[in-house]
Structures are given as C-alpha cells and as structure tokens.
UniProtKB/TrEMBL annotation, chain A:
Lineage: Bacteria, Pseudomonadati, Pseudomonadota, Alphaproteobacteria, Acetobacterales
Name under which the protein is recorded: (Fe-S)-binding protein
Domain spans labelled Cysteine-rich: 17-98
Organism listed in the record: Caldovatus aquaticus
Pfam family name, one: CCG
InterPro entries with a match to the protein in the record: Cys_rich_dom
Automatic annotation (TrEMBL), chain B:
4Fe-4S ferredoxin-type domain: residues covered: 19-49
Organism per entry: Caldovatus aquaticus
PROSITE patterns: 4FE4S_FER_1 (PS00198), 4FE4S_FER_2 (PS51379)
Keywords carried by this UniProt record: Iron, Iron-sulfur, Metal-binding
Protein name (Swiss-Prot/TrEMBL): 4Fe-4S dicluster domain-containing protein
Superkingdom of the source species: Bacteria
C-alpha cells in the first residue's frame, strides 16, 4: 500500500511503518508523541525510532568511514524492523537517506516524509479536526531548502487549512537553508532570517508563526518574548490542538523562562543528570535569542 | 512515493563520495549559475566580489580531488552552504548542484582523509562533541522511561 496514495477504506488494517524522528527532535518529546498519534489517526501504525542509535551519519561527515558506518547501522536496523516504509520527520535525515545512506547500503523499504503521508490521507484527518485552536491567522515559517525534495511549503499549509476557523496566510518570505540550524553557523544569517520572518508576520497580521521543523522551532520560540500577541507553534502542535489532543510545549516554556533551571524543575533536572544539565542543556536554554 | 529506495551504487560511503564527485565534476561546466542563485552569497563579501565562474571552478576542483588548489572564495562559499537548493534549480546542466555542494563540503572537511586530499582539511569539521550526550539528556527530560527504552 502506497502511503502517499489515497488510503484504503475504513476498517482496513493499518499500515505499519517506522517513524524515524531523527535525533535533535528529542528536545520536543511531545512532537514525536503527537506525530505518532496523527499517523495513527489516519490509519498508519508508527513505531518511533530515533536518537543517536539511529543516526544518519551527518554529525560525523568529516570522516566518511565513520559516517558511513553509522548510516549503515541505521539502514540495517530499519531493514530488520521489517516495515515497508520509513516515515521521516527530519529534512536532514530524509535527504541523507536519499543521498548517502541508501546509495551505499541496500534498503528494503520506501521512505516518505510525514507531511506527504498526512497530506495523502487528509480526507481522514479533516473530520478529526473539530476543536478550535488558539490562533486566528497563521504564518507558516518556510525555507527554500528541502522543498525541492518534498513540497513541504505546499503540503503543510494545505494541512493547516483543514483546521476550521484558521486562516493560513501566504507570504513570499523564505529563509535560506533547509532549516534554521543550517543558518546558525553563518554569522548574522539566523538573525536576518528571523527579522524577515517577524516583518512578514507584521505585514500579514499573523498572530502565530508556525514552524515546520524542530530546529526552526527551537530557534524561533524565543520570538514570543516581549511580543504578547505572537504565538510560536509547530504545525504538529496545531493539528494536535485541533484534534483535541493535550500537550505541553515544554521546550518553549523552559527557553522563555526567566530561570530555565527553575522552570525545568527538580524531577526533570534529576532525569537529565545535574552535570549533563549544567554542561549540555542549560547553556542552550539560556542562550540569548538572535534578535 | 511508494517504491523502495533505489539499490546501492557504491560499496560504502567513501566509494560513493569518490564516484559521485568524479561523475558530477565531469558534468559541471563551472558556468557559475549556482553561485548566482545562492542566497548565502550576499552574506559573504569576498564571494560576492569574485567572478561566479571562478568560484564554481573552485567547487569543481574540489570534486576533482584538487581541494588544495581551490581558491579561498570557493572554500568560503562551500563552507557557508545551508542547503537551500536554489543552485539545483538554477543549474543549466540539470545537475543536483546542492548534492555537489554537499560532497565538496564533506571533502573540504576531510571526509576522505588528508592523504587522499593532498593536505589537511580546508574547512573545520562541524562536529559538536556534545551532540550525542546532549540529545540523550534532552530525551531523558522529555520522554518517559518506557518511550526511551522503545524508541531510542
């Protein structure tokens, strides 16, 4: 069954897939959870898989031997899972699978991006989007990149337009790169992209910036600071909200808290480990926003 | 899409990088259209001031295994690639120029080793030494123990 073709009728057995969420989206556990629920709602039973154990190899791209071995391990794990399709979340992972992973290791599966799967099954999704969302006019945060592989700049706004009462505005603003983490390495590039995004929000009268990817979300949530009329939300959050699925965007709460350590709280701090939190997590949460 | 991914065309990643570099370098005419379409060039004054054809020729040189001879402007341009993909749309030869840039970036960061490239990496590796530990720390904060056990 082609996951990006029209779905089988109601009552048909769900398609079983691996949902490869990548690594850095682990900052947003609720996105993984909600994305899985959305897939289930359209008849796709998804087994999430991610983190460093399912690495695409790109963090080690300066050593092809190591990167290739990491990528091979991941492809072989997906082969062993026995699913026909791997549904991707991360645009880097998706492109790496096409460009470097499958071309060097036999892959016994198809790959499709989650936006393609949900869009192909939007007739099933639409009736489930019954709850009002706390957004009136949404501006999708779009990039030039990845759209040439998977037309996310069309698919995601189309899906958001299924939400009753939500206006999804068009604006020509497109950030360079395929997601915001790519911009962070070029001095001034991320700040320029965020200023352009804010200008687009003002021009369109949007009361929400809707991020497509996790790295954009983590770089953009701080734009809520000092802007009480503006909400930053991921497209998965918004679809989930319209389905009435409860969730909490903890990363945004932590990132925008005056004291992130206090906002995280003792239980989660203990889960991370004091040393790991202090060295790896806290500096990111306290980093000043680019604009 | 629904078909399985295409079969492998190389034995491993280093072999793929070598083969694809050679294939694309042979097809590239270094016309500079990719440089002209790149949204990062305005952020790189030295690249913006250089002739696009010369910058593209430097990109092609990297793929030919001549990384040490590539001009600084080409190295800076490749290093600033954010994968916008506009270069691919602009290529009159219909090459996947974004992939070409990715290959060149990997080679300039030393993916094939100093011996094969004839010298040390010309771009610093983008490796975050805390990446894996950071991902796992966040996962412990945002996923239940059961989710961690099943998903990671």
């Amino acid at each position: 069954m082609a996951l990006t073709s029209p779905p089988p009728g109601p009552g048909a057995a769900p398609d079983r897939v691996v949902f490869w969420f990548g690594c850095n989206v682990a900052r947003h556990g609720e996105i993984v959870r909600l994305a899985t629920r959305l897939l289930e709602a359209v008849g796709v039973a998804a087994d999430p898989a991610g983190g460093p154990a399912y690495c695409c190899g790109s963090p080690k791209e300066a050593n092809a031997r190591i990167a290739g071995a990491m990528a091979r391990r991941t492809v072989e794990a997906f082969n062993a899972a026995g699913r026909d399709t791997v549904v991707t979340w991360c645009p880097s992972c998706h492109m790496n699978m096409d460009d470097f992973m499958a071309p060097a290791t036999e892959a016994a599966f198809a790959a499709a991006h989650i936006s393609e799967v949900l869009h192909a099954r939007r007739d099933r999704l639409a009736p489930l989007l019954r709850h009002p969302v706390a957004v009136r006019r949404a501006l999708p945060h779009l990039h030039h990149g990845f759209n040439g592989r998977v037309p996310v700049n069309t698919l995601v706004p189309d899906l958001l337009r299924l939400i009753p009462g939500l206006e999804v505005v068009d604006h020509p603003c497109r950030a360079p790169g395929h997601m915001c983490s790519a911009l962070a390495g070029v001095p001034g590039a991320l700040a320029a992209a965020q200023r352009a995004l804010l200008a687009a929000a003002e021009e369109t009268g949007a009361d929400a910036l809707v991020t497509l990817f996790h790295s954009c979300h983590r770089e953009t949530v701080a734009l809520e600071r000092g802007r009480p009329g503006l909400r930053v939300v991921n497209w998965i959050h918004l679809l989930a909200e319209a389905m009435g699925l409860p969730f909490q965007d903890d990363y945004k709460t932590w990132r925008n808290a005056p004291d992130p350590r206090q906002a995280v709280g003792p239980a989660r701090l203990a889960a991370a480990g004091e040393t790991a939190f202090e060295r790896l997590v806290e500096p990111e949460l306290r980093r000043p926003p680019p604009v | 899409m629904s078909a399985r991914l295409p079969p492998p065309r190389a034995a491993d990643l280093p072999a793929l990088i070598r083969a694809e570099s050679a294939r694309l370098a042979a097809a590239c005419t270094a016309c500079g259209a990719c440089v002209g379409a790149c949204p990062m060039v305005p952020a790189l004054p030295a690249v913006a001031a250089a002739a696009p054809e010369a910058v593209a020729a430097g990109l092609r040189a990297v793929l030919r295994g001549e990384a040490q001879a590539a001009p600084e402007e080409a190295v800076a341009w490749i290093g600033a690639c954010t994968r916008s993909g506009l270069c691919t749309a602009a290529c009159p030869e219909r090459l996947d120029a974004a992939f070409l840039m990715r290959l060149a970036g990997m080679r300039l960061r030393g993916a094939l080793g100093a011996q094969e490239e004839g010298g040390p990496p010309r771009l610093p590796a983008r490796e975050d030494p805390g990446w894996s530990a950071r991902v796992k720390a966040f996962a412990r904060m945002t996923l239940t123990e059961e989710e961690q056990a099943r998903w990671l």
